[in-house]
Design a protein that fits this description.
325 residues; seven-stranded parallel beta sheet; two-stranded parallel ribbon; UDP-galactose 4-epimerase, domain 1; 10 helices; alpha/beta; 17% strand; Rossmann fold; 13 strands
Length: 325
């Protein structure tokens, strides 16, 4: 029997899409980990045939069953960028992740984990995933800080997994994010606003360099994210930290227009004030430098913003469906 791939955060957004993708590709050697008591996520994983491990039992379980494990894909995290209590992130995003890293390192288990574009802060140093720059990054919120602290810690470790990679996810959108509430993508919220009110609300700009709605992000469709993760599982390339976006920044107005187009509804955009609690912690521009990922051989095309939103809206949001291949 082949050894297992373990996915943490498997009831969540990206983790559940990966688990379902592996199932569609007929991988039966998968174990999923999460807090399965949160029933709002149940549709993300209820059809999966895999064994489940509760998150608070996983560290002890992994240490005990290490001989049976090939790879851990660690996608479980606290991801609320509006939570400002660093202690919340320190427990799950930092200490929990360190425990997983140490066990994987001690027993020769490969580890792939989620970092974040939030580590780049306001982009003063650009969006280059050169690990030499990580010590100089200044995240804008405790979430980004926790992710950057783990990246810095991991790089400095002498004891490392044989194969390991951190992925700096940019603005991921797509099916299976319905449970994320305030932290769901602007695509998800925009679709629901248009469906209910016939219009979408976007944040005004509070910087003179940007017009309202011209703030830009690197929006990446979750299907592309999963294809990259699957490619890493197949090829086990050079250990490092990699950006995972599209490499193309697009405006929130572009995003809104794409949703209206997919819904076949006339455009109606309203600009609202940004909440004061996030105003000085808001990224006005992100764009992944994808050179390093391309240089190791990943050259598959990514969905354009228009095509990704069209697929998401027409095949998942309108019919109210979870991820399918």
């Amino acid at each position: 029997m082949s050894k297992f791939i373990v996915i943490t955060g498997a009831a969540g957004f990206i983790g559940s899409v990966l688990a379902n993708y592996l199932n569609f590709n007929q991988l039966d050697n998968v174990i999923i980990v999460d807090d399965f008591s949160k029933l709002e996520k149940i549709h993300n994983y209820d059809s999966l045939p895999y064994d489940r491990i509760e998150r608070d039992q996983f560290i002890d379980w992994l240490d005990k069953h290490h001989n049976d494990i090939d790879t851990v894909v660690h996608l479980g995290a606290r991801t609320d960028t509006t939570e400002f209590d660093y202690g919340v992130f320190e427990k799950l995003n930092l200490n929990y992740s360190k425990n997983i890293w140490n066990i994987c390192s001690n027993y020769g288990i490969d580890l792939y984990y989620a970092s974040s574009a939030a580590t780049y802060g306001d982009g003063t140093l650009g969006y280059n995933d050169d690990i030499e720059l990580i010590d100089r990054l200044q995240p804008l919120n405790p979430y980004g800080l926790s992710k950057n602290e783990f990246d810095k810690w991991a790089i400095k470790q002498i004891n490392k997994p044989k194969h390991w990679t951190g992925f700096k996810f940019f603005n991921v959108y797509g099916p299976n994010e319905y449970h994320k509430r305030r932290m769901a993508s602007v695509v998800f919220h925009g679709y629901n606003q248009i469906k209910k009110e016939g219009k979408i609300k976007l944040f005004k700009s509070h910087k003179p360099d940007y017009k309202d709605g011209e703030q830009k992000r690197d929006f990446v469709y979750v299907k592309d994210v999963i294809k990259v993760l699957f490619w890493f599982l197949e090829h086990r390339p050079e250990n490092s930290i990699y950006n995972l976006g599209t490499g193309k920044a697009r405006s929130f107005i572009d995003l809104a227009k794409s949703i209206f187009s997919a819904m076949n509804i006339k455009e109606n955009i309203e600009f609202i004030d940004m909440p004061k609690d996030i105003r000085d912690k808001y990224q006005y521009f992100t764009e992944a430098n994808m050179t390093k990922l391309h240089n190791i051989g990943y050259n598959n095309p990514f969905y354009s913003l228009e095509n990704g939103i069209s697929d998401y809206v027409k095949n998942y949001l309108i019919p109210d469906k979870c991820f399918e291949k």
